[in-house]
Design brief:
9 helices; alpha+beta; Aminopeptidase
Length: about 270
């Protein structure tokens, strides 16, 4: 059976998060996701796509001029099991975008990020019709001396105190005093104690992709479209956690890897 036999349908947040924890390389979910789409194969839930507002929404909104506040959405998580057939990701995204155009016509574009520091450089997005709009060295995913990994935003944002408490326990294994003083008086967190405890950004790159649900919005893109060849030129190529330079002799596939209803998108 081919990817054309997939069924894409809304699922509740609990089922989506469970699927992401099972199949996403990070094992972590994005709690503010609003739209949860399940990928069903032979009647079983084998994948999930989660969409929601970007954490840095005010900044990202400017990627496309004159975008309404509710005019774009981020693909927060995409997690598929190994049992799904070849090209399942691009097929599922195509169906998801058709559903968005039909049910959420106010959405003009979708943004997503490929984590080439840990997983891949966005082969799936390129196959699905996204354009590449940014490549930068990773400064968002940090690793502790003992190997635990955290998003920088979750370590410094005041709404992520649970993550900060978890990170503080990691730091405390090395220096209790530093671990206790990660949180500042105002409740915010500083990266300085992490740096002092030996934390550092993971080597690699982060890539930003945009897909236009409304083709007219493409003309309002405020940053240059980057040729895909630039990825390898910069040494940012990554597939399943390994640099493409190490896989030069290998053939790479095209694709990578309820009770509570989905909330309406405003």
């Amino acid at each position: 059976m081919s990817a054309k036999a997939l069924r894409i349908a809304p699922i509740n947040a609990v089922d989506a998060r469970g699927c992401v924890r099972r199949h996403h390389y990070s094992g972590k979910v994005v709690n503010n996701s609003q739209l949860h789409l399940g990928v069903f194969w032979n009647g079983n839930l084998e994948g999930a796509m989660q969409f929601g507002p970007s954490l840095d929404k005010r900044k990202l909104r400017g990627l496309v001029a004159d975008t309404p506040w509710n005019g774009f959405i981020e693909l927060n998580r995409m997690a598929f099991s190994e049992r799904l057939p070849r090209n399942s990701e691009s097929r599922a995204l195509a169906i998801a975008f058709r559903l968005m155009r039909k049910h959420y016509p106010h959405l003009q574009w979708v943004v997503s990020f490929a984590d080439a520091a840990q997983s891949g450089d966005g082969t799936i997005y390129r196959a699905a019709g996204f354009v590449l709009t940014g490549i930068k060295r990773n400064d968002q995913i940090w690793i502790s001396p003992s190997g635990e990994r955290f998003a920088r935003f979750s370590l410094t944002d005041q709404s992520s105190l649970q993550q900060q408490q978890s990170a503080r326990r990691v730091v405390s294994r090395k220096t209790v005093t530093k671990g206790q003083h990660i949180l500042a008086v105002d409740g915010a967190a500083s990266m300085r104690p992490y740096v002092e405890a030996g934390w550092a950004p993971i080597e690699g790159y982060q890539l930003r992709y945009v897909y236009f649900l409304d083709r007219a919005a493409a003309a309002r893109l405020t940053v240059p479209v980057i040729p895909f060849a630039r990825i390898d030129e910069m040494g940012a190529g990554m597939y399943r956690g390994e640099a493409r330079a190490k896989q030069a002799t290998e053939a790479l596939p095209v694709s990578g890897g309820g009770a509570a209803p989905t909330r309406a998108l405003q």
